[in-house]
Amino acid sequence: MNYKNSKFYVENISIGKLTRSFQTPFYCYSKLRLNQNIKNFYKNFEKTKPLICFSVKSNSNSKLLKIIKDNGLGADVVSIGELQKVLKVGFKPNKIVFSGVGKTSSELNFAIKKKILLINIESESELKNIINLSKNKKTVVNVGIRLNPNVNAQTIGKISTGRMQDKFGLTFKDAIKIIDKYKNSNSIRFKCLSVHIGSQILSNAPYQKMIRVVNNFLEKVSVNFEYVDFGGGMGIDYSSNKKTFDFKKLALEIHKFSERNECKIILEPGRSIIGDTAVLISKVIYIKESPTKDFIILDAGMNDLIRPALYNAKHMIIPAIKSSKKSKKEYDFVGPICETSDRFLKMKKFQRLNEGEIVILKDVGAYGYVLSSNYNVRPMPKEVLVDKSKTQIISKRQSIKDLI
Length: 404
Known about the structure:
By secondary structure, the chain is of the alpha/beta class. The protein has 2 domains: 2-29 and 275-403, Lyase, Ornithine Decarboxylase, Chain A, domain 1 (Beta Barrel), CATH 2.40.37.10; 31-273, Alpha-Beta Barrel (TIM Barrel). It is built from 12 helices and 20 strands. It has helices at 15-21, 31-44, 62-70, 80-89, 105-114, 124-137, 172-182, 205-220, 247-261, 271-274, 307-311, 400-403, and strands spanning 2-4, 7-10, 13-14, 26-30, 51-55, 74-77, 96-98, 118-121, 141-146, 188-194, 227-229, 264-267, 278-289, 293-298, 317-319, 330-334, 343-347, 358-361, 382-387, 390-395. The strands form 3 sheets. Strands 4, 13, 14, 15, 16, 17, 18, 19 and 20 form a 9-stranded mixed β-sheet that branches. Strands 5-6-7-8-9-10-11-12 form an 8-stranded parallel β-barrel, surrounded by 4 helices. Strand 9 (141-146), helix 7 and strand 10 (188-194) form a beta-alpha-beta unit. Helix 5 crosses helix 6 (124-137) and helix 8 packs parallel to helix 9 (247-261). The radius of gyration is 23 Å and the shape is elongated. The two termini are 37 Å apart. The mean pLDDT is 94.
């Protein structure tokens, strides 16, 4: 994804050509970037050779999941819907991990029936439920126990999952108590220790602290885990600061850990695999002038991309065609939704825009389309995959008739 002669291209296709073919707003993915990201992730962790389970909640498009599956990855799911989808796509059950704090009996029953690799438990009540279900099926269920390491991931509070005030996982003390209480059960097997501290993490420091906590825990626990699941959370650069996550540093720490504890590693990347593979292409409907700034009103709204409204997340906005003419006023990029929070970004020194021009919201592959909605009875957008010079519609745009 880059400019060629002042025009922005996704692989070999210009945005101009795409917008002549597809109604805005729409999501557009690069197959090449997705394959490159997976290849780079494998390369960074080649010494440890972990089981890489893609975090399906970050992007659950079936066509994209098939590409991910064909690259050899497993899946990390958090609902029966995600589990059914990855099984239909063709993911092998022995490469699927089921996480989440509120798995219902029907969800657990389905996971047990499909004999997936792991169900990560997050409370004693959940474990009791699994034991009862496994007794009824006369089987043994492999479970992971999720530890809350009380580590601040130094990220957005709403996507931090490893602090004591967060709902996820068990305390150090409670996890040991539950393991000692149920380790001799004939219905479950403690196969994995799981830990996850958050998302969009750009520093290795939280991971280093997490690894120290896990090492300490393993010294005190009375079972030997075959796997340790370190979750995901590795961030991407949403700005132009070029601040990227140091994968090599983390890979070295994890390799030392796996050798010391003689265990296999599971990683659950989502954003670092899919985040920068997509752009959201939108049209300027109106330019509303005011004395200090101009509102650039787009046809994409918070129903299409809610991250800025939900998390105060910033997605860089760029023009489809570059120009040297700069606006003298600040631009406030907003959507058409009847909410003040329906705003994307304020930018100074942006090039001068006209109504009807196309702009691009970058890095929307993770938690973009999956969080879109029908708020204001607006159709969810189309998703398009670019493969070199070819395009494929990988989800259709809804019609208002569908909604009504």
